[in-house]
Design a protein that fits this description.
- There is one protein chain.
- With 276 residues, the protein is mostly helical.
- It has one domain.
- Helix content is 64%, strand content 0%.
- It contains nine helices and no strands.
- Helix 4 packs antiparallel against helix 5, helix 5 packs across helix 9 and helix 8 runs antiparallel to helix 9.
- The longest helix is centred in the C-terminal third of the chain and has 37 residues.
- The radius of gyration is 20 Å and the shape is globular.
Length: 276
């Protein structure tokens, strides 16, 4: 029989030990791969190459979509917001990895502003990317595929590959994820919802002259749209939990694979063991 009180107590302690801020005992984790030995401070060449390929891929497709679409309407869609923030995150990750690779090996003792910004950016990017994937394929896809100019390939790139970016990034990096940082993704989603309200109130339309950016996000029908907004925020929490679970899974896999005596889980300043 499951001890519900014990489970709840463990979850409460886990949540209590989590931190809201951005201090971290091992700043070099933001520059290296999780799969490298703990005493290796620099990223490997393979890590830099993968970061470069991800950056190049999203730079190419963002440029293509900007050219192929009307720039005036490009940034009204959440998908394009997320695709752009992925490009920014990919650029920062690649440049940081390249910088750390070419400079002499050095241990970073305290979190810098650049590393903190990187952490915030990645947390928003990972959560938002999964929000778009879940939200689009469950709420918007059925309607989109009925359009005459519908292209499955473009759909997959815009609403599927973004989550592939998350999986690849989280698989190779050593950057921690904190459950309490979900507020960052919530703020991002609320910012987009606020934008749609302002855009609608200002008389903005899409390329077809419709006031609704998405049919499920039509402020001419405030009751339904508020309901959808609440659902979208629920998806944000689910998405961040998925990202956090991927982080825990990565730590467990690496600890088991490398047979380390302990592994640093970013929960509190104490060392928590995963595997043995």
């Amino acid at each position: 029989m499951v001890d519900s009180e014990g489970c709840c107590g463990s979850c409460c302690r886990w949540w209590k030990n989590e931190k809201w801020g951005f201090d971290h005992d091992h700043p070099n984790d933001f520059l290296r791969s999780q799969w490298a030995p703990e005493d290796q401070l620099k990223p490997t060449l393979g890590y830099v190459i993968i970061r470069g390929l991800l950056f190049g891929y999203f730079l190419a497709f963002t440029t293509y979509f900007l050219i192929d679409s009307d720039p005036k309407y490009y940034f009204i869609y959440l998908t394009d917001w997320v695709f752009t923030v992925i490009l920014v995150d990919g650029t920062v990750q690649f440049l940081l990895a390249l910088w750390a690779y070419v400079k002499p090996s050095q241990e970073i003792l305290v979190m810098t502003k650049v590393l903190t910004i990187t952490w915030i950016l990645s947390t928003i990017t990972y959560g938002a990317a999964i929000v778009v994937t879940i939200g689009y394929w469950t709420l918007v896809y059925t309607e989109s595929k009925e359009n005459e100019d519908y292209q499955l390939y473009t759909d997959i790139v815009m609403h599927g590959v973004n989550s592939v970016y998350v999986l690849i990034s989280m698989a190779i990096e050593a950057k921690p994820i904190r459950l309490k940082h979900v507020y960052l993704v919530v703020c991002w989603q609320c910012l987009y919802l606020l934008f749609t309200i302002i855009y609608y109130a200002a008389g903005g339309t899409d390329a077809d002259g419709e006031t609704a950016i998405y049919n499920v996000l039509d402020w001419a029908k405030p009751g339904e749209t508020i309901g959808f907004s609440a659902v979208s925020l629920a998806i944000v929490f689910i998405s961040h939990i998925i990202v956090y679970a991927l982080y825990i899974f990565r730590c467990w896999i690496v600890a088991d694979w490398m047979r380390t005596e302990h592994f640093h889980l970013d929960i509190s300043r104490q060392k928590h063991k995963i595997g043995a």
